[in-house]
Amino acid sequence: MSLGDPESTNENDYFGSIGKEKEKAPGPEKRNPDELQVFSRELNPMLNPDSTAPEPVPAPREAQYGAPGHKWRMMKLRRTYEIAEQSGVPVEQVALERYGSMDAFDEARRERQFLEDAETPAGDTSKASAPPPRSGNASVFRRPAPSPMERPSPSVASAKAPAQDSVRIPSVLPRAAAPSNDQPSPSLTDLNKLEAKALRAEMANRPDAPALRAELDKAKAAASSQSTQGTVEALPVLDGYGRMYDLGTSTAAELEEQASTKKRAKDAEEPTDESLAELVRQERLSAGRMDQKNGDAALAQQIATDHGFEDDLEYMDDEAQRFARKKMRDDAMKRQFAIQDFARTKKALDECNFCWQDEGRMPPRANIVSTGTLVYLALPDREPLVDGHCWIVPMQHHVSSLDVDEDGWTEIRNFMKCLIRMAASRNQSMVFFETVLSLRQQKHTYIEAVPIPNDAFAELPAYFKTSLSEVESEWSDHKQIIYFSEERPFQRSMVSKLPYFMIQWDYKGQRGYGHIIESRDDEHGYRQAGPNNDDEAVYGDGDHLGGSGFPKYFAQEIIGSLLDLEPYKWRRPRHVQGMAQHLARFRASWAPFDWTNLVAEGS
């Protein structure tokens, strides 16, 4: 092979390239970090002039009222009004925080109005005749706290949820023109006073008579319009004794079904038997009238009020329908009874002179001499029967002293022992008596203590024994006299569910008499309209004035007659002039025997 051969030349080039470094291709220049860097995808034309203009954003579509999600939007609107009401700030301020702008808030309100119009029948034009409300007035939509028995069941269909909201949301156009509630409606007493004032002006031909008559007509119109509006009542759960009310268990859907005639007719039928669950329910929900809650007591009451009763099974079988227990027909009657009983209890507590008011910040309006932890000693608010006459009052509102717990009775016995010692230092004996005339009025009970000279005290038991045997009808349903003994003292001989009178002359309740107070209207009770407007026997509880029943001053009359006192002392006792001086004298004589001072010194 010669040097000029092409094959030899290529071979030399190949071997000549072995062992030399390969040259790299020149890379891009390194960027200066201080200079502004603009990427090729930058859309801002101020930074990248080569960028193309963005596509135009389509215009927002009109809001479709009632579209999916409207329930959440209405819930947000309702919550806005709730927050404004609870915090006491204008609703516009809360709307700006939750919606971001008033336009969005107004849009939600317009959707609410659209939904309301969709639910209203076409012929109903009552909404369009009233001026728009003030959106900032949240007090118009105030609601009470929800009751446990009124919460809707989760299984109930929510097709009418916007119409059944617990908080009413104002609409752009309200439903009807409601009268202004800036001023409260006049009461019946105010109307009577205003009418009497107008009549006197008309009879005297005074120039202001027409103005008074116009004011009276305006007040009557306001009262009548207020009476036609619905009222909201608090539905209690417990009664004054701490027992649960039977309020019923019907849901909203069941109540709507009961509106039909067939359903009501079916519910009106008397049940022939009761299940075990129903019996357990009646036992737990024991609050209310005895004839509605206790079947045995109701049967005994029916028998007691039957003058022609015969102790014969055939007679009882023939009269079984009449002796049958009359039940409350529906939940509405049960709730109405609970509301009325709660109102009676609230009135008794608000008007009680022996209870602490305003959550313990205001002391009782009684002439307190000495106070313990649960019981205090007080003087009568009127002229006492004799010098040393006082009251032993429990601090808690009890209708009967038998409802006081054992700690309270320990303090009651301490006061009794000290009063007996104080009377013995004056050659006197102390008598304690309690009169519970009515359980329905729920008055605060107290035990009266009256000192009596020893010579007259020897005749006192015989006087009371004779008077108790003659005080009411001889055909009474209970024993005329209940004797207290060591085996059966006062607390074991009497019950707190019936009105009673008791008198004792020792602190243990082992020496004395008791008497069950029956109806003061007739001999065996009275009758009132039942749930179906039929006469229904109701056992008397001493709440009926008139007749020859048990007098409220029974013990005072016997003691006053024994001591030859004037009848006004117990019939119409006078007001005491200088109660402060009278209270100071009693405290001075009571101080050496006051057991509360020893407790205070020991602590």
UniProtKB/TrEMBL annotation:
<feature type="compositionally biased region" description="Basic and acidic residues">
    <location>
        <begin position="19"/>
        <end position="34"/>
    </location>
</feature>
<dbReference type="Pfam" id="PF04676">
    <property type="entry name" value="CwfJ_C_2"/>
</dbReference>
<dbReference type="Pfam" id="PF04677">
    <property type="entry name" value="CwfJ_C_1"/>
</dbReference>
<dbReference type="InterPro" id="IPR006768">
    <property type="entry name" value="Cwf19-like_C_dom-1"/>
</dbReference>
<comment type="similarity">
    <text>Belongs to the CWF19 family.</text>
</comment>
<feature type="compositionally biased region" description="Low complexity">
    <location>
        <begin position="152"/>
        <end position="163"/>
    </location>
</feature>
<feature type="region of interest" description="Disordered">
    <location>
        <begin position="1"/>
        <end position="68"/>
    </location>
</feature>
<feature type="region of interest" description="Disordered">
    <location>
        <begin position="107"/>
        <end position="215"/>
    </location>
</feature>
<dbReference type="InterPro" id="IPR040194">
    <property type="entry name" value="Cwf19-like"/>
</dbReference>
<feature type="compositionally biased region" description="Polar residues">
    <location>
        <begin position="180"/>
        <end position="190"/>
    </location>
</feature>
<protein>
    <submittedName>
        <fullName>Pre-mRNA-splicing factor cwf19</fullName>
    </submittedName>
</protein>
<feature type="domain" description="Cwf19-like C-terminal">
    <location>
        <begin position="342"/>
        <end position="465"/>
    </location>
</feature>
<feature type="domain" description="Cwf19-like protein C-terminal">
    <location>
        <begin position="474"/>
        <end position="596"/>
    </location>
</feature>
<feature type="region of interest" description="Disordered">
    <location>
        <begin position="255"/>
        <end position="275"/>
    </location>
</feature>
<dbReference type="GO" id="GO:0071014">
    <property type="term" value="C:post-mRNA release spliceosomal complex"/>
</dbReference>
<dbReference type="InterPro" id="IPR036265">
    <property type="entry name" value="HIT-like_sf"/>
</dbReference>
<dbReference type="GO" id="GO:0000398">
    <property type="term" value="P:mRNA splicing, via spliceosome"/>
</dbReference>
<feature type="compositionally biased region" description="Basic and acidic residues">
    <location>
        <begin position="192"/>
        <end position="205"/>
    </location>
</feature>
<dbReference type="InterPro" id="IPR006767">
    <property type="entry name" value="Cwf19-like_C_dom-2"/>
</dbReference>
